[in-house]
Amino acid sequence: MRKNIVAGNWKMNNDLPLSEALISDLKRQTKTSNAEVMIAPTFTNLWHAFEATRHDDIEVIAQNMHFAENGAYTGEVSADMLKSVGIKTVILGHSERRAYFNEDDAILAKKVDQALSKDLRVIFCFGEELADRKAANHEAVVESQIKNALFHLDASAFKNIVLAYEPVWAIGTGETASPEQAQDMHKFIRKTLNDKYGNQVADDMTILYGGSVKPANAKEIFSKPDVDGGLIGGAALKAEDFYAIVNAF
Ligand SMILES: O=C(CO)COP(=O)(O)O
């Protein structure tokens, strides 16, 4: 079923004391919308964050994981490790992972497979760079990112996938895709799913937009019919701003 989700990706921000403080602030906010609320702290804060929100309407999710079961992968974290600290959802394919850690479609396909085989829900991120959009190549880029990492899956696997369109040029830049640009791309993504898997998968898919979503622009972006929520970076680091976005539905 399609849902409204607002997920805060904290990226590499907040050590343990700051994470504790932000979670206390988040717990003081009031949710007036039907959106599911998620926060993605860094690995070292996951257990504390899970414990601290156990009785709250906030899901703690992970920013990344490795594709292997376990073994000699220094510095990496496995699906089982995430599950053992209460995590049920993992972000994969973020543009920062793609750009700085060389995660390509083939690696991401393996990560998606591993996460799904462990019953983790995946928030799968993708999006074009500025040069792609200037060359009017944005739809082709997004289509290939989705196809290469996900189209080996059965239709039933998509129940555990949420898509997040994050145009690279709008991340952390203060430049947002216009609500129309977001809507056009989300509609195109749904059509791409429809062409391969039919309208059940396409209509049920939750598609988030990410890239400089702020309290001031969230309402207009979320009002678009194919935008089901947001993946929020900078504005997720302040509880009032984050809940202003959550409540923009
Ligand atoms: O990358 C993002 C969320 O994953 C978006 O970040 P900003 O909201 O800071 O642009």
Automatic annotation (TrEMBL):
Subcellular location, record wording: Cytoplasm
Biological process according to GO? gluconeogenesis; glyceraldehyde-3-phosphate biosynthetic process; glycerol catabolic process; glycolytic process
What is this enzyme's class at the first EC digit?
A: isomerase
Q: In which pathway does it act?
A: Carbohydrate degradation; glycolysis; D-glyceraldehyde 3-phosphate from glycerone phosphate: step 1/1; Carbohydrate biosynthesis; gluconeogenesis
Give a single Pfam family match: TIM
Could you tell me the superkingdom of the organism this chain comes from? Bacteria
Keyword tags: Cytoplasm, Gluconeogenesis, Glycolysis, Isomerase
Query: What GO molecular function terms would the record report?
Result: triose-phosphate isomerase activity
Q: Which residues cross the membrane?
A: none
Its Enzyme Commission number(s) read: 5.3.1.1
> Which CDD domains does the entry link to?
TIM (cd00311)
Instruction: List the active site.
Output: H94, E166
Q: What does the entry list as the binding residues for substrate?
A: N9, W10, K11, G172, S212, G233, G234
InterPro entries from the UniProt entry: Aldolase_TIM, TIM_sf, TrioseP_Isoase_bac/euk, Triosephosphate_isomerase, Triosephosphate_isomerase_AS
Gene Ontology CC: cytosol
Q: Which family does it belong to?
A: Belongs to the triosephosphate isomerase family.
Q: How does it assemble?
A: Homodimer.
Name the job this protein performs: Involved in the gluconeogenesis. Catalyzes stereospecifically the conversion of dihydroxyacetone phosphate (DHAP) to D-glyceraldehyde-3-phosphate (G3P).
Q: What is this protein called?
A: Triosephosphate isomerase
* Source species of the chain: Olleya namhaensis
What gene makes this protein? tpiA
